[in-house]
Amino acid sequence: MASNTPSAAPAADVLSDVLHRRGLMFILSSPSGAGKTTIARRLLAEDGHIAMSVSATTRPMRPGEVDGRDYHFTTRENFAAMVDAGEFLEWAHVFGHSYGTPKAQVKTGLREGQDYLFDIDWQGSQQLHQKLERDVVRVFILPPSIDELRRRLTGRGTDSAEVIAQRMERARAEISHWDGYDYVVVNYDIDICFGKVSEILAAERMRRTRQTGLIDFVRDLMGSDG
Amino acid sequence: MASNTPSAAPAADVLSDVLHRRGLMFILSSPSGAGKTTIARRLLAEDGHIAMSVSATTRPMRPGEVDGRDYHFTTRENFAAMVDAGEFLEWAHVFGHSYGTPKAQVKTGLREGQDYLFDIDWQGSQQLHQKLERDVVRVFILPPSIDELRRRLTGRGTDSAEVIAQRMERARAEISHWDGYDYVVVNYDIDICFGKVSEILAAERMRRTRQTGLIDFVRDLMGSDG
After folding, report:
1. Percent of chain B's residues with pLDDT above 70
2. Model confidence at A224, in pLDDT bands (50, 70, 90)?
3. Cβ within 8 Å of residue A126, ≥6 positions away
4. Does the residue B43 lie in any domain?
5. Distance, in angstroms, between A164 CA and closest chain B CA?
6. Beta-carbon neighbour count of residue B28 at 10 Å?
7. Contact indicator for A137, A204 with CB cutoff of 8 Å
8. Residue B120 lies in a domain
9. CB pairs A-B closer than 8 Å
10. Contact A165, A27 (CB under 8 A)
């Protein structure tokens, strides 16, 4: 179900996860160039409890991709039928193809304590929030300055001024939705920013309402007279 | 205003606090013996941005105490007048004396970005939450088991069985209010528990709604075309 398998957790983490808890949907959004992809990759690599959900898509499979691991590859007809049946948590058209998050997969995972990472824009974020509000944690990453953003978007200097201007315009449009997020982190330094995003994830896991195992734990605590 | 002066913050912390933010009220509650006092002391010692608010009290000053640092010492008449005027965020009678948190002090501090730590029970927590809901973060610390709690409450073994039974009864009564908190941490290990409480505090500081400086930051980011 998840694209990366939960790995062995460190001792400290084991202690914290003795009690059952409901998973959460961790949304990372940012303008392109603000560091989101680096942070998402590190979270997936270092945190054994969070995974990407596997999206359904109408785009053709590429060499090396595996159906059900990278994507659930499907036809336009089937995708449209899933949309009509309300089987997506969120979906979007990107460059002529459709991508969507199947509801059933995520709902089962959340119940079992699996956290999901979503690297999506503000529109996808809004769709998820409308459908599963209490499970969603929305984090927006901001660049430290517009000059630094331009530097990152300029890349190796091989792109035309026009292409860079378009990228800047898209970045500005994305930034304008910063106030639809629960948390905001300014990426002055990628390691510090990663640390802050990890702290948000760790804290949200400790919310009382997610720790479904607490009810039995407290009942035992109150009831026993050992 | 605060009983401990904010000290120099580490570099990582400085970077995160470039933007102005509104302070928060961090409530730690737990049954006696669950580790709350140790964690509160460590937070105050290691975190330069959080302080205890100075309570007003009708109890007499003790040797070594300083008015305005340890408490605002006041008369029963004056305390009662402050209660009538609604000048307390929360107040309570404990062992024949009154204690209360003056509203004006905390409100000014929060505006200036000062965080306050409250080591109070569920009733005080409820009072604070009713008055300044958006500024309050409530954390409940649970003992790992009733046996461990009894061990901690038994202390040096000099207390009578009756006294210990009373303590256990009070602890059970406090635990029964665990579901009035935003976060719950089980104290299996004091260092891990302290780390978790620190993560909650760090994450809550990154809430968009507390980072009042973001509005200007984003305006500059969007407006500048450097």
Report:
1. 91
2. low
3. A180
4. yes
5. 13
6. 25
7. yes
8. yes
9. 122
10. no
ipTM of the complex: 0.87
B62's enclosing H/E stretch is none
Give the CATH number of the domain where residue A152 resides.
Answer: 3.40.50.300
pLDDT surpassing 70 at residue B99: yes
pLDDT tens per residue across span B157-175 = 778 889 889 989 999 999 9
Contact B217 A12 (CB under 8 A): no
Q: Chain B contacts of A181, Cβ < 8 Å?
A: 208
Confidence of residue B225 (pLDDT cuts 50, 70, 90): low
Is a pLDDT exceeding 90 seen at residue A2? no
Assess whether pLDDT exceeds 90 at residue B33. Answer: no
* DSSP 8-state code for residue B179: G
What DSSP string describes A94-130?
ETTEEEEEEHHHHHHHHHTT-EEEEE--HHHHHHHHH
Residue B215 lies in a domain: no
Residues in chain B within 8 Å Cβ distance of A192: 12, 15-16
Q: Report the C-alpha gap between B224 and B144 in whole angstroms.
A: 53
Q: Residue A112 belongs to what domain range?
A: 20-203
DSSP single-letter state for residue A132: S
**Do B183 and A210 contact (CB within 8 A), yes or no?**
no
- The string of pLDDT tens digits covering residues B101-159 is 999 999 999 999 999 999 888 888 999 999 999 999 999 999 999 888 888 888 767 78
> Is a pLDDT exceeding 60 seen at residue B2?
no
Burial A159-192 (b: 16+ CB within 10 A, else e): eeeeeeeebbeebbebbebbeebbbbbbbbbeeb
Assess if residue A142 is contained within a domain: yes
CA distance B134 to A50: 29
pLDDT of residue B4: 41
Q: What is the mean pLDDT of chain B?
A: 89
Chain A residue with the nearest C-alpha to that of B142: A218
DSSP state of A86: T
CA–CA separation, A75 vs B177, rounded Å?
Answer: 53
Q: Which residues contact A47 (CB under 8 A, 6 or more apart)?
A: A115, A198, A201
8 A C-beta contact, residue A195 and residue A38 = no
Structural element, H or E, at residue B70: none
| Residue of A15, A183, A206 with shortest CB distance to B208 | A183
Number of domains forming the structure of chain A: 1
